[in-house]
Design brief:
This protein has 145 residues and is mainly beta.
């Protein structure tokens, strides 16, 4: 009986310990899961050391970013026939490392604040002022669902 049980126990341990899943751990993303709406953006440009604050208006104020346990769904809105309508949604896998606060889906973002109702990210992905240096972009989101 021991000869049958031992291989089964070893196999069970190997299967339960395997980590082939690249998705974020549930406990790490519990606060991130939901639908978010960006209500403010700040752009710090290195050329003139200025910060420009912008607030989405019109159809773009309806844009959403929805995280589930493994994927992000980005829906941007555009004006069609005088009404706001969703454009083609963009879906992607994402990773989030709570320790480093890195959130990655296409580009890399640093989560500087994450509460049950607010998400703030910072990135250095875009050269807004054309000086050849990546500028700091901070995005502020509210959880709407």
């Amino acid at each position: 009986m021991k000869k049958i049980f031992l291989p089964f126990a070893v196999f069970s341990a190997m299967v339960s310990c395997s980590n082939d899943d690249d998705s974020p751990k549930k406990e790490e993303v519990a606060l991130l899961i939901g639908t978010w709406n960006q209500y403010k953006g700040e752009f710090y440009t290195t050329y003139d050391n200025e910060t420009l604050t912008v607030y989405p208006n019109g159809c773009e104020s309806q844009n959403t970013v929805e995280y589930n346990e493994t994927e992000v769904n980005v829906v941007n809105y555009e004006s069609k026939d005088g009404k706001c309508a969703p454009a083609v949604p963009k879906n992607a896998k994402y990773t989030y490392d709570k320790g480093t606060q890195k959130l990655t889906h296409g580009k890399e973002y640093i989560v500087t604040k994450l509460t049950p109702t607010e998400l703030v990210t910072e990135d250095h992905n875009t050269d807004w002022d054309g000086d050849g240096k990546k500028d700091v972009t901070t995005r502020y989101f509210r959880k709407i669902k």
